[in-house]
Design brief:
The longest helix is centred in the last third of the chain and has 17 residues. The protein is 41% helix and 15% strand. By secondary structure, it is α/β, with parallel strands linked by helices. A four-stranded mixed β-sheet has the order 1-2-4-3, sandwiched between helices. The chain has one domain: Collagenase (Catalytic Domain) (3-Layer(aba) Sandwich), CATH 3.40.390.
Length: 179
């Protein structure tokens, strides 16, 4: 398996975070031409209190957020809107770690409800978003955000999930400045 999911919040079991994370992560890597068998990602399913602590510790923002990511590699491109560097290749026998993702249940459920979206679709989007961060994509510069959102739309479309940005503003976007 590509993802190792750790559940600190029992509510994640009802959403089957393990299956959602595996599907989203594999779809993201395949879309980018990477073999999921050669990589590994740790996914933490936590609550808002835990992610607020992580957000404070790593970003200096002591508030809950929807998703955080910690890439194993700095793959960010120098030129705005360019694809990141390629991640080192791994094998099924020796998978390359891509990094870690944490996702907060209460924030995700509240965002999905506010946007009138299925929680599983919103969680899948956030995992795709987090995996793209692990692969060097970002949304700080406008051209980079355009590229990242385009990839998210394509990957989610292949999974049968509607464009998450079509009618979405503000706090539901993973790029709300908190990931």
């Amino acid at each position: 398996m590509l993802t190792e999911t750790i559940l600190e919040e029992d509510g994640w079991q009802a959403l089957d975070l393990e299956a959602l994370a595996e599907t989203a992560a594999c779809a993201t890597l395949r879309h980018l031409g990477l073999d999921p068998q050669g990589y590994e990602i740790a996914v933490l399913g936590c609550d808002d209190a835990r992610i607020a602590v992580l957000n404070a510790d790593f970003r200096g923002k002591p508030v809950p957020t929807n998703v955080l990511s910690w890439p194993a590699w700095d793959l960010a491109p120098e030129s705005p809107g360019s694809a990141p560097d390629m991640v080192p290749s791994g094998t099924a026998e020796a998978p390359e770690p891509l990094g870690d993702i944490a996702i907060a249940l209460q924030t995700c459920l509240a965002e999905a409800k506010a946007a009138e979206k299925r929680p599983s679709d919103h969680v899948t989007h956030l995992v795709v978003h987090g995996v793209l961060h692990l692969l060097g994509y970002d949304h700080i510069r406008d051209p980079d955000a355009t590229l990242m959102e385009s990839l998210e739309r394509s990957i989610l479309g292949k999974l049968g999930i509607a464009d998450p940005y079509s009618m979405q503003e503000g706090p539901l976007r993973p790029d709300n400045g908190q990931d």
